[in-house]
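[INFO] parsing input record for Squalene cyclase N-terminal domain-containing protein
[DEBUG] input buffer:
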Amino acid sequence: MWKLKIGEGANNPLLRSRNGFLGRETWEFDPDAGTPEELAECAKQNKVYTKLRVNDLKDSTEVTEEVLLTALRRVLDQYSSIQAQDGHWPGGYSGILFILPLMNEDGGWSTHTLGPSSMFGSCVNYVTLRLLGEVLDGDNYALSKGRDWILSHGSAKAAPQWAKLYLSSYGCFHIFFPFIQVLNMICCWIENPNSDAFRQHLPRINDFLWIAEDGMKSKVYVGCQSWDTALTVQAYCSTGLIQEFGGTIKKAHDFIKNAQVTKNCPSYKSFYRERSKASWTLSNGENGWSIADTTAECLKAVLLLSKIPPDHVGDPIKEERLYDAVDCLLSFVNKDGTLSSAECKRTTPLVEEFILGTAVK
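[DEBUG] output buffer:
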C-alpha cells in the first residue's frame, strides 16, 4: 500500500532544507500495510469516488439559501478533511501533459488536459512516438495526421522554448536551459556518478512523483503548495463560514507564514536572480525562487486573515514581513510599468521571446 508522507527528510543526510521540509510530499510503498479486507475496501472506495464525484441537482430541486449553505458546508468539511498536518493541501501538479495526452481530432496534441492542439504538445508527442518505434507509413494514420498538423502550423521551429528544450534532449535541437531537475541530475552524473552532487539529487526524485486514482505520474514541479493554500484561504474567507472552520484556517495560516522566504539567496545578483526575501514561491519556499503572483495571492490571504479575531485563525503575520513582501512585489515592476512574474525584463521583447525557457504556448 502506498502512503503519503508529509514534511519528512530530516533523517536523510543527503537532503537539505531551509525550512524544515515544510510542505514536502513523498509517497512510500509499504508492502505490509493494510489487511486484505482493508485493501479491498480501499479499491472499492476508489471506484465509488470516480463514479460519484459529481452529484448534480435535479432540475426540479429548488435552490434555496439553505440548500446552498448545506452544500457549501459539505464541500468545506470534505476539503478540510484532506488538509495535511502542516496546513497545506497535498496534490498532484500534472495539468501539463508532456508525454501521453490524447490526440485531438485535428491531428495535434494539447499541452494540458482537454486543451486545444498546440505546437508544444504536438512536437514532443510526435517525436516521442517515433523514438518508441512508431513508423510513418500508410497504416499509421494517427502519426501522419500529427505530422501534417505540425507542418501546417509552422513546423517545430514555431515551438516554444520549453518544447525546444525537450527536443534538444531528443537530438533535434542544440540548445540548453538548465532548470529541470532531471536534466541537472544527468549533468551531475556525467561529471561524476559517485559525487555528492549526484547522490543528493537521487532522494529528490520522490518529490516529483504523485500517486492518484489512475496510478503514478510525474509532476511538472515539486508542487504548488503556497499557491493552492493562498487561494484556498481566500475561498474559505469568501463563504462567511470562516468561524466554523477555524482549525483548518489556522493551520493554513501557519503554513503560509512559515512558507514565506526569510532571506535572499547568497550572491543572487551575480547569478542574475531577483530578490527573494519576504516573497512566496510557487511551492514551499525550499528553492527561494520568488514568484510575484504567488506572493500577491499569499499577501492577500494573510491580509484577509488579519481582519479576523486571532482566536479563530491564529496570530497575524508581523507587519515588517508584510512591508517586506510589498517591497518584493514592487521590485518586479519593469521600467515600462508592467509587472513580471519570476524575473524582471532585462533585454528586448524579441530576445526574451527567443530564450524564455518557461514559455509553453
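[INFO] The beta strands are 2-6, 25-29, 209-212, 215-218.
[INFO] shutting down worker
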